[in-house]
UniProtKB/TrEMBL annotation:
GO molecular function, one term: protein serine/threonine kinase activity
Record organism: Mycobacterium yunnanensis
Enzyme class: transferase
Identification of the protein by name: non-specific serine/threonine protein kinase
Keyword Phosphoprotein applies: no
GO cellular component, as recorded: plasma membrane
Pfam families per UniProt: Pkinase
Upper classification of the organism: Bacteria, Bacillati, Actinomycetota, Actinomycetes, Mycobacteriales
Subcellular location per the Swiss-Prot or TrEMBL entry: Cell membrane
Residues in Protein kinase domain copies: 10-272
Keywords in alphabetical order: ATP-binding, Cell membrane, Kinase, Membrane, Nucleotide-binding, Serine/threonine-protein kinase, Transferase, Transmembrane, Transmembrane helix
Broad class of where this protein is predominantly found: membrane
Amino acid sequence: MAGLVVADRFKLKRLIGFGGTGQVWEATDLPTRRVVALKILRDDVAEDLVIQARFRREADTVASLDHPGIARFVDYGHVVDPAAPGGQAITYLATEFIRGESLSALIHRSERLPVGRTLNVLEGVARALGHAHAAGVVHRDVKPSNILVTKDGAAKLTDFGIVRVLGEATLTHVGTVMGTARYMSPEQARGDVATAASDVYALAVVGYEMITGTPLFAGKDPLSIAMSHMEDEPAQLPDTAGKPLQDLVATALQKDPRRRPANGTEFAEQIAAARRPADRPIRSTRPWRSRWRRT
């Protein structure tokens, strides 16, 4: 499909990612010459009405959010493209193209990330989540592959494909588990409703993996991992992480969501407070004296 022009506007350049329902392409927005990320529904699921509704909700959600930690919305559409293979309909979502790499790739390459860099990413994602939570949006799938890190260290939250929008009709059957087992909150594993505190839990799991280079719980299959999130107590971060980060992660990993930070903004403020002692300049304890003398 490289070279295909979608909706007479977006020229596909290269495939940069794929998931359960779609592909993500680097593309050129021909009228503006800007590079965008173009997510396209796969042919075999494009006619599924529930998946179509989720894709439209993702587009509406991204369009409604305006935060530097969330990829900006560009366009959404559903077109029958005669130039496409078989002349099939194409449903697409165009967003800001972020130059960087996924946090999952960064963890895989580095194994363990420094505490300072971990706190930078956690606070950035927490503030993006806080913005979404304030708008009534629960992400439900916070994980390293959905976090992009730019060359200057900024974190960007992506993939709002299974969001829950408060006050709107659900697209999920009661008791259905939504999310990724390795980063799933206990309440999500039980099939309960995900809340902003569920996203905080998932982000804390990400933080644990950034520091240790290993998953919080590593079972043989998704079910055993989900059971661990519900029943097993997480191991404490190593002493090299420092007590402030140890305490932050431990609090956010509480089984009871009422004992965690309530939302992304609250978690971000706690992260910022935890890093301030290290950021403060060292001041002399000697009293200040003027070097000027009266004559």
